[in-house]
Write a structure and sequence with these properties.
The complex is a heterodimer of chains A (about 250) and B (about 475).
Chain A lengths: L1 E10 L2 E11 L4 E5 L6 H9 L5 E9 L2 E2 L5 H7 L1 E4 L6 E5 H15 L7 H15 L3 H5 L1 E2 L5 H15 L3 E5 L7 H14 L5 E6 L3 H5 L4 E6 L2 E6 L1 H10 L1 H10 L1
Parallel strand pairs in A: 3-10, 3-11, 6-9, 9-10
Antiparallel strand pairs in A: 1-2, 1-4, 4-5, 7-8, 11-12
Helix pairs in contact in A: 2-3, 3-6, 4-6, 6-7
Chain B lengths: L2 H11 L12 E3 L6 H10 L4 H15 L23 E3 L13 H9 L13 E7 L2 E5 L2 H5 L4 E4 H7 L1 H7 L10 H9 L4 E5 L8 E7 L10 E6 L4 E9 L6 E4 L2 E6 L4 E8 L11 E12 L5 E8 L4 E4 L2 E4 L5 E10 L4 E10 L5 E10 L4 E10 L7 E10 L5 E10 L5 E10 L2 H9 L4 H17 L4 H14 L6
Parallel strand pairs in B: 3-7, 6-8, 7-9, 8-11, 9-12, 10-13, 11-13, 12-14, 13-15, 13-16, 14-17, 15-18, 16-18, 17-19, 18-20, 19-21, 20-22, 21-23
Antiparallel strand pairs in B: 1-2, 3-4, 5-6
Helix pairs in contact in B: 2-3, 3-8, 6-7, 9-10, 10-11
The chains are: A alpha/beta (about 250), B alpha/beta (about 475).
Chain lengths: ~250, ~475
């Protein structure tokens, strides 16, 4: 589904990604871990197409298409979803209205009819159950005055509504207490299927107790320095990131 | 094609879709302004002597005045001798039925999305259609008259309801009020007149549609709306003009009178031609709008969506004379390219326990300048009065300007006046967030802007709100990214 080859990127003059290789197949969950400043969020942003970063080398293929050639909105319409670390607020625009616009933009791209209000609301009702989100929240202005947990839950709700092929969760666990974390993870788990894939970007192992990954990659200094199964995350938890740092400075 | 597709197409392809000119025969006054011009207009309209005298008084006063310069707008001096003050489409003088309207004129209004055909209208909106200097037709007249409601052109009102016109004309906006009202009073050619009798709730939206068609012509219309005790009316106003390289002057006067417990809701979607991207052409929209809450518990609410005109100079105001009366002003003013807007309101609290509310949303893009100017005045005897003002500015790009000039004068200690103001920019983060959900930049901007203006758009009648939303998107086309 997703194939990243030797991806290099910088912001202004600073080189951040120095050759990333990653293969993600449908049905898989990959976790990307690493210390602060290792390039985790940069990778997530580049997948979504944020212009702050300049890709200087390598390639990303998604479902046979050159992802880097696509505009951010076309990536989304092709099925790439980013759950933001810091979701923005849009005053005066309700989540419902926002999502209706998004859903129909995506449907239009796929040559499908716009969804009418009745079926949209029906779909919304179903999905609110999946992610356990309060419907009154969805009538309020998007993310305006939401708590940290509500914002993250709203991201997962949007993911449920847009049904992406590839979901990238950027530090979705940051700022969540354990109960909120469970709800968010639960939502993601319910949305997992053999047809979609998830990339979980996280600093801590604890989210992976609830969203169990098939593969874990450790990103350090712009490169994936270690890959393994879920046990790697536990080892990392036990030994700390210094383990990775020491190993890599020694080489 | 889906609706959103169509809107998108309009968005990307149309600059100003009302810019066409209709080929109709005109009857015009010679260029220039003098006592003779005033007499010519009055004679054309077969007016009674008192009105001619009124006009001449206004004209003589106008000669003593100078163009006001206090507004935050700049434009070259207007040559008032280079303007045609009266231009009327030639057609039969009196119409027996709507079928007798010149087909070209009918087509013009169809093109603007306004049907003059009563049967074909889906919803109950009665229209008074004004083209250049005269009113073409008023729909639903018969139906309204059954309730005692008078809705007709100003010229007609002068002849058929002289007692009402004479009693109220110029009482809210005196001819001496300012430079442009004096000019308007001298040369006004038509406009709408409306009277809602005691206790009547007008069953449909009343609407006037203004269209400037002829070249070199100024439009000077006058609207007078009287809501008698306990009555209720919602009034809409729309306007467009062809694209021309020259600037055209529109100097209108609107007067509202709301009696005891009466309520007037006045909505405007102003879409005069704004000029091209380099600031060539466009309408100078110098308008005086004012209402008086003459009786206790009266209410006047102005809602305006201003997207057009090269220059807008306009302050719809409310004089809160009756005790417990309420004045409201909801405004969205959009400027793009080289447009300039200096707009706001005046709330004059005279009665006790009066309340006013101002919500102003300015949006500036391109190289435009957008100013809010507002006065809240609480007279000493207006005890226990309240005002709340909110003035927000949204900037798009880094070459435009947003300015706020609030004036507050409070004459007693029991009244409370609040003013809140914010300035913000459309964030790249907001646009990217929308992009990531599959929404393109153009639509994202429209979504964000509509969200920002929601409080005001919610005040508009349903169909107008939809129109206004599309208009906002079109006006801001290409201003981001």
């Amino acid at each position: 589904m997703l194939s990243i080859k030797n991806l290099q990127a910088r912001v202004e003059e600073k080189e951040i990604l120095k050759g990333i290789n990653l293969e993600v197949k449908a049905g898989e969950v990959h976790a990307i871990m690493g210390p602060n400043g290792s390039g985790k969020s940069t990778l997530a942003s580049i997948l979504a197409g944020r212009e702050t970063y300049e890709v200087t080398g390598g390639s990303i293929t998604f479902e046979g298409k050159d992802l880097l050639e696509l505009s951010p909105e076309d990536r989304a319409r092709e099925g790439v979803f980013l759950a933001f670390q810091y979701p923005v607020e849009i005053p005066g625009v309700s989540t419902i209205n926002f999502l209706k616009t998004a859903v129909n933009a995506i449907r239009e791209y796929r040559g499908e009819e716009a969804m009418d209000a009745v079926s949209f609301l029906k779909m919304m009702k179903e999905k609110t159950k999946v992610v356990e989100i309060d419907e009154t929240l969805l009538k309020r202005s998007l993310n305006e005055g939401f708590s940290g947990g509500e914002k993250k839950r709203n991201e997962i709700f949007q993911m449920a509504m847009l049904e992406p092929k590839l979901a990238v969760l950027d530090e979705t666990d940051s700022g969540l207490d354990i109960d909120a974390l469970k709800i968010v993870a639960n939502g993601v788990n319910k949305l997992r299927s053999k047809n979609n894939a998830v990339i979980v970007v996280t600093h801590y192992q604890r989210l992976l107790d609830y969203i169990v990954p098939d593969y874990v990659h450790v990103l350090y200094n712009g490169r994936i320095v270690k890959s393994g199964t879920k046990e790697l995350a536990l080892e990392l938890e036990a030994k700390g990131y210094d383990w990775i740092k020491n190993e890599n400075t020694a080489v | 094609m889906s609706d959103s597709n169509k809107i998108l197409e309009e968005l990307t392809q149309s600059d100003y879709k009302y810019g066409f000119v209709t080929n109709i025969e005109n009857e015009s006054a010679p260029k220039g302004l003098s006592e003779d011009t005033v007499r010519f207009i009055s004679a054309k309209k077969n007016e009674p002597q008192w009105l001619l005298d009124w006009r001449l008084k206004a004209f003589r006063h106008w000669l003593t005045l100078e163009t006001p310069t206090w507004a935050n707008v700049t434009f070259p001096a207007i040559d008032y001798q280079d303007i045609i003050y009266y231009s009327a489409p030639k057609q039969k003088v009196t119409l027996n039925s709507l079928d007798e309207i010149d087909p070209e004129l009918r087509a013009t209004f169809e093109k603007l999305g306004i049907s003059l055909d009563e049967q074909k209208r889906l919803s109950g909106v009665a229209v008074d259609a004004v083209i250049d200097s005269v009113s073409i037709t008023t729909t639903f007249k018969v139906k309204l008259s059954e309730l005692g409601i008078i809705f007709c052109s100003m010229s007609e009102a002068v002849h058929e309801h002289p007692e009402l016109v004479k009693k109220y004309l110029g009482t809210v906006v005196p001819i001496t009020d300012n430079y442009f009202t004096a000019l308007n009073s001298a040369v006004f050619s038509d406009g709408s007149f409306c009277y809602i009798p005691k206790g009547v709730r007008c069953p449909m939206e009343l609407s006037t549609y203004f269209r400037i068609n002829a070249a070199n012509t100024g439009q000077f219309e006058r609207t007078l709306l009287i809501a008698d005790e306990g009555s209720h009316v919602s009034y809409l106003e729309g306007c467009t003009a062809p694209m021309r390289d020259e600037n055209q002057l529109h100097a209108a006067v609107v007067e509202l009178i709301s009696m005891e417990r009466a309520e007037i809701k006045y909505s405007t979607v102003q879409n005069w031609y704004p000029g091209d991207k380099n600031g060539k052409g466009g309408i100078y929209n110098f308008v005086t709008k004012r209402g008086i809450c003459a009786g206790d518990h009266a209410k006047i609410s102005w809602t305006q969506v201003e997207t057009g005109s090269a220059i807008t100079w306009k302050y719809p105001s409310v004089i809160l004379k009756g005790d417990y009366s309420i004045g409201e002003f909801y405004s969205v003013a959009v400027t793009n390219n080289m447009q300039q807007a200096d707009t706001g309101t005046k709330m004059i609290h005279i009665g006790k326990n009066t309340r006013s509310r101002i919500v102003s949303k300015g949006i500036s893009a391109g190289k435009s300048q957008n100013s809010y100017r507002g006065l809240v005045e609480v007279k000493p005897r207006a005890i226990n009065s309240r005002n709340f003002s909110q003035c927000d500015s949204l900037l798009m790009g880094d070459q435009c300007g947003a300015h706020t000039f609030p004036y507050i004068e409070v004459g007693n200690p029991s009244s409370i006046v609040e003013h809140e103001a914010t300035t913000s920019k459309i964030g790249e983060d907001q646009v990217f967030y929308c992009n990531q959900r599959g929404i393109d930049t153009e639509k994202a901007v429209a979504l964000i802007v509509n969200g920002y203006c929601k409080e005001v758009l919610n005040q508009l009648p349903m169909e107008f709100a939809v129109e206004a939303q599309k208009l906002l998107a079109i006006s801001l086309e290409g201003s981001v990214g």
